[in-house]
Amino acid sequence: MEFTPPSRKCFPTKSKEEEEEDERIYQKYMDLISTLPTERGCTSDHITLYQGFWHLPTSSLLGVMAVQQHFKARSTNILLASTPKSGTTWMNALIFSIVNPLYDFSTHPLLTHNSHECVPMLEISIYKTSQIANPDVLPSPRLFSTHIPYSSLPKSTIDSNCRIVYICRNPKDVFVSFWHFADVIQIKLNKDQPVISLEETFQMFCKGASPWGPYWDHVLGYWKASLEWPKRILFLKYEVLRSNTSVCLKKLAQHLEYPFSLEEEKQGVVEKILELCSFENLSNLEVNKSSDKELVPGVKFSAFFRKGQVGD
Ligand code: A3P
C-alpha cells in the first residue's frame, strides 16, 4: 500500500484571491497577537499569553488560532494531545500502527517516514503560518496530534465526540528533554541576546512561562476531562507506557475502537508493533537518524530522539 503523508494532501493549489484571503486571515491573527501580554521567552525573544497559556507567537499561536477558527472534527477522528517532549513522537507511531493494521511490517510507512508525517500536528503541519489547509480532503479516520490545551481546543473536537488520547510525562524529564531539544535545534540563543542559562529556563518553566505552559494547567485540563468523559479521553503516562508497553498498547487499541483480535494476538501483531515503535528501532532508522528531513525549517526529525529514558 502506497503511503503519502496526509498533510501534503491538505494544501490545494489556491487562486490569487484565495491566497490573499489567507494572508488577510493571518494578518488578523497577527494584529490580535500584538495586543496580548508577553513575557521574555527561553527559546524566543518573547512568548505570548493566549487563553491562559504561553505560546511561541508566530510558529504555533498563529496555527492555534487557525485551528480554532477553521478545523472541524469528525466523530471518527483521533486526536493525540500532549505538552512538548512528553512522548508525542512515540504515541504517534503507536496510534498510527494500531489504526492502520493493513500495512506490512516489512514495508511499513514508519520505516521511511517520521511519525509526525504519519500523524500531522494540527497547529504546525496542517494550519501552517501562511496557508489555511483543507483537512476535509483526508479520509476518515483522520489522525492528528496537537499541543493545544484542552480549554482551547476547537469546539468541534468536544462536540463531535472524537477520541482523544493524552500523554503526560514527569515534568522533570519533560524539562530536561526540552532543554536538550532547544539545544539541538539551536533556539536557546537569540541573535542579539545572550544564551539563556539552564537555571533561568528552569525558573521560567516552574512559573509556567514556557511554550504551552503552565505545565500543570495543561495536564490538569486533560486529566479532569478524562475523569469526566473516560470513554472519550484516555489519559496515559509516559513512565507507565515505558514499563508496561504491551498492556498500555492493548488499552490504547481498545480505547480507539481498534482492539486486537485473538487472531492478531496469535500472529504476534502486538509484539510487532512494540518492536516497530520501540525507541531503539525508530531512532536508528535513516529517516530519524541521519536524513535531512525536517518537521519545520530548522527542526530535523532526529531532534525527536535522544535517550527515551525515565528519570534522566
Ligand atoms: P528524551 O529527550 O528524554 O530522550 P516528543 O515526541 O513529545 O517531542 O518527546 C520527545 C521525547 O520522547 C524524547 O525524550 C525522546 O527521546 C522520546 N522518545 C522518542 N521516541 C520514543 C520512543 N519510541 N520510545 C520512548 N521514548 C521516545
Automatic annotation (TrEMBL):
Keywords: Transferase. Transmembrane segments: none annotated. It comes from the Eukaryota. It is an enzyme of class 2 (transferase). Its EC number is 2.8.2.-. GO terms for molecular function: sulfotransferase activity. SUPFAM superfamilies: P-loop containing nucleoside triphosphate hydrolases (SSF52540). Residues 76-312 form the Sulfotransferase domain. Belongs to the sulfotransferase 1 family. This is Sulfotransferase. It comes from Nelumbo nucifera (Sacred lotus).
